[in-house]
Amino acid sequence: MKLYDCKIAPNPRRVRIFLAEKGIRLDTVEVDILGGENLGEAYRRINPRGLLPLLELDDGTRIDEVVAICRYFEEVQPEPPLLGTDPRSKALVVSRQRHMEFDGMIAASEVFRNSAPAFAQRSLPGAAAAGVAAIPQLVERGRRTLEHCFGELERYLGQSEFVAGDRFSLADITALCTVDFAGWAKIKVPEHHLNTHRWYKAVSARPSAAA
Ligand SMILES: N[C@@H](CCC(=O)N[C@@H](CS)C(=O)NCC(=O)O)C(=O)O
User: What would the pLDDT profile of 160-175 be if each residue is shown by its tens digit?
Assistant: First the structure.
């Protein structure tokens, strides 16, 4: 089994943190997104979408998408649970995870990709829209969505220790990777979001955060 990975990229990091929390070690194949290796023929034979991460099982099955990969490992090794433990918490993890991914991670990507010179001709990740030029107006849209997401994050963390309740979950992992990724685009959690700062300090200190 092996994980196609990219050390600098935020979505592969979500999987690495998830695996580190479970104590699972995998062989990895590093793919250079910055240099465009993911858009080249060799990687596109592995993942025609040109996206990372991707998990390859020993029988050759290839699984892309962070949530799908994490779901696989949750089934294979349920402890410690990172996707909820009962109907209520499982649903809440999915819900909050999606908020952090769609309103957070994707919005941060929208800001970053439409403003960073290195991605001037790669406005969207992956092969589907390779060569599409940056659209500067999207920076403001991404920024607003992200600010709203940070407001929601603060609200959730005012209600419980972690993003989806009293247990660390994939929702925290996605939120942590989003906050760090937003920092690349110089968007910070507002200082008065005290719950988020309390949470950020705690989750970044977990050994998995360095994965
Ligand atoms: N929804 C996908 C997102 C994957 C994604 O966007 N990955 C980025 C790295 S963070 C990527 O592969 N980028 C390729 C590129 O920039 O061309 C998932 O959950 O795996």
Answer: 999 999 999 999 999 9
- Using DSSP, state whether 101 is helix, strand or coil: helix
Q: Cα(82) to centroid of ligand 1, in Å?
A: 21
* 173 ligand 1 Cβ < 6 A: no
Q: What is the CATH number of domain 2-76?
A: 3.40.30.10
Determine whether the shortest distance from the Cβ of 52 to ligand 1 is under 6 A: yes
- pTM score, whole prediction: 0.98
Write down the domain spans for the chain.
2-76, 87-210
Centroid of ligand 1 to alpha carbon of 159 (angstroms): 31
Radius of gyration of the chain from its Cα atoms, rounded to whole angstroms? 17
Alpha-carbon span 83 to 54, nearest angstrom: 19
